[in-house]
UniProtKB/TrEMBL annotation:
Gene3D superfamilies in the record: HUPs, Tyrosyl-Transfer RNA Synthetase
Record region (Disordered): 1-36
Motif 'KMSKS' region per record, residues: 414-418
Pfam families xref list: tRNA-synt_1b
Function: Catalyzes the attachment of tryptophan to tRNA(Trp).
Biased composition (Low complexity): 26-35
Source species of the chain: Halapricum salinum
Main subcellular location of this protein, as a coarse class: cytoplasm
Name by which UniProt lists this protein: Tryptophan--tRNA ligase
EC nos: 6.1.1.2
GO process annotations (BP): tryptophanyl-tRNA aminoacylation
Residue spans of biased composition, Basic and acidic residues class: 15-25
Length: 536
């Protein structure tokens, strides 16, 4: 929706000035959807970010924010709203240990202010001491978007220039193209042996018309994600939009499948699933407390579960309990004891034997697993990784990810490279950037009088997003001031847009000056922008 006056655009009035001064990254107030489809190559927006927590297991970043030293302003303002397993990265930062950051860019058009968020996240992690990687996903662009190599070369150069202009240090980090990185391609080949078409079909909705190169580009991206760990395992974070989460889930699965050993907890010689393990654990704990001086046996736990099961248990829980009882009965008088289990996934015979030797204390060796009774899980994980690496394995840690909100387009709706008025390219003439902000939709009221009386809707305003995501920089006080003046009715849209337009013009001027400086030094970098691939 565009402005109808110089001061404020139309919308339905509400009288609510008691709002959170942070961006509502949880999607509160947005139209909820029963299901959220995450398509890495699609164009759908996420209507309700809270659904991602429920449906896909993405965790709220607010909960981990206190653990992050010197958090980036995108984290503080809730623009980075979610994560998968970011704690190892935050801990590495706090402890001064090795960690890495990597993200890639599919060169389908000019870099714009939406891409700037990812550039900033890479640069910030590098500044915190991380090994930083920026890659051009040219194989993906060619396979999934059918871009010509000429087009890819042109845009790849532009993405790298903006990343450098925003602070990426190429001497301390690595820039590469998928098509030129043989190690990535070789790793992708190995990872491809751990995935199959049915899995890719379920994750990405591939069908009989999906070409093989598109599928191959997926395992290449998996290799990109794990590439920082090729020399040694280290916590690695991938900053992405939530639409890329399918890639992260698959990468974490493949990282685990490549491991020599899987470490779990167990209570008996037989293997159970996590739900059955929880049921057996509860029986063991109860019986151990009741009879602290007696050995708890599998048949004792079976009787306990049969006679004292929860009458309100769901059918699913009842089925899982029945299966646990059956296995416990079959084990009979075998003692039920907590232990840490090493399951053989891909280990060589030499690695399996070495692990047996490396485990101190009481242990039991079976054909496909080893049970250790004097080793906690954390120590067991470390030992398994050491043995794996010593015997030629990768020892991958599961990669972490952080997720940022999509920027709203200046015209409302999604910011899209195919709609020039909806976004500001980092290559736009500064005056054009000024004009686009001046023409942007806002969250203002019908009239200046209503704006002063009811306050503006900063939570729904693309112009306020510009302040929060970019124009305020690291100055939280300024971002909060703009927000409070807007919702308090002191700030009118005309003046607000004028200020934002001037700041945008200044940003583009400075950014393009830095791009020009790097343009002169680009040939010194170890990355080729002139592909020698056939122009098929």
């Amino acid at each position: 929706m565009t402005d109808t006056t110089d001061d404020d655009p139309p919308d339905e009035p509400t009288d609510d000035r008691t709002r959170d001064t942070r961006l509502r990254a949880d999607g509160a107030g947005a139209a909820g959807a029963d299901d959220v489809a995450l398509d890495p190559w699609g164009s759908a927006t996420v209507e309700d970010y809270r659904k991602l927590f429920e449906q896909f297991g993405i965790e709220s970043f607010d909960e981990i924010l206190p653990e992050v030293p010197n958090p980036h302003y995108l984290m503080r303002r809730g623009v980075i709203f979610g994560h998968r397993d970011y704690r190892p990265v935050a801990e590495a930062m706090r402890e001064g240990e090795d960690f890495a950051v990597l993200s890639g860019f599919m060169p389908t058009g000019d870099p714009h202010i939406g891409h700037k968020m990812v550039f900033d996240e890479i640069v910030w992690h590098q500044q915190q001491g991380g090994d930083a990687y920026g890659l051009i996903a040219d194989l993906e662009a060619h396979a999934a978007r059918e871009l010509s190599w000429e087009t890819i070369d042109e845009h790849a150069r532009s993405y790298i220039l903006s990343l450098l202009a925003l602070g990426f240090d190429p001497e301390e980090g690595e820039l590469y193209r998928q098509s030129d990185n043989r190690e990535v391609q070789d790793l992708g080949f190995e990872l491809g042996a751990k995935a199959n078409f049915s899995e890719l079909q379920a994750i990405y909705d591939f069908d009989g018309e999906t070409d093989v190169s598109h599928m191959q580009s997926v395992v290449t991206q998996m290799a990109d994600i794990l590439y920082p760990q090729l020399e040694e395992p280290k916590p690695t974070v991938i900053p992405v939009g939530p639409d890329q989460d399918p890639h992260m889930r698959l990468a974490r699965d493949l990282a685990a499948r490549m491991r020599y050993f899987k470490v779990t907890e167990a209570f008996a010689s037989f293997e159970v699933d996590p739900d059955q393990r929880s049921i057996i654990a509860e029986a063991y704990e109860t019986l151990s407390q009741r009879h602290p001086d007696e050995t708890v046996r599998c048949e004792d736990a079976a009787r306990y579960l049969e006679n004292e099961r929860d009458p309100d248990a769901t059918d699913l829980n009842a089925t899982r309990t029945d299966s646990a009882i059956m296995m416990l009965k079959e084990a009979g008088k075998e003692p039920l004891r907590p232990r840490t289990r090493f399951l053989d996934r891909n280990a060589t015979d030499e690695a399996f034997e070495a692990l047996i030797e490396a485990i101190d204390g009481e242990k039991r060796v079976y054909e496909a697993h080893i049970d250790a009774f004097d080793l906690d899980r954390e120590a067991a994980e470390e030992l398994a990784r050491e043995v794996e690496i010593d015997h030629g394995g990768y020892g991958f840690l599961a990669p972490s990810s952080i997720y940022h909100r999509f920027m709203t387009g200046l015209t409302g709706g999604k910011m899209s490279s195919s709609i020039p008025a909806s976004h500001i390219s980092l290559l736009d003439d500064p005056e054009e950037g000024y004009d686009k902000v001046k023409a942007a939709t806002t969250g203002g009221r019908e009239t200046a009088e209503e704006q002063r009386e009811l306050g503006g809707r900063a939570d729904e305003c693309p112009v306020y997003e510009l302040y929060a995501y970019l124009l305020s920089g690291d100055d939280d006080e300024f971002a909060t001031e703009v927000y409070e003046e807007c919702v308090g009715g002191e700030r009118l849209c005309g003046g607000c847009k004028e200020q934002a337009a001037e700041l945008m013009e200044e940003f583009l001027e400075e950014h393009q000056e830095k791009r020009a400086e790097w343009e002169e030094k680009l040939d010194e970098l170890d990355i080729d922008f002139d592909s020698d691939r056939k122009r098929a």
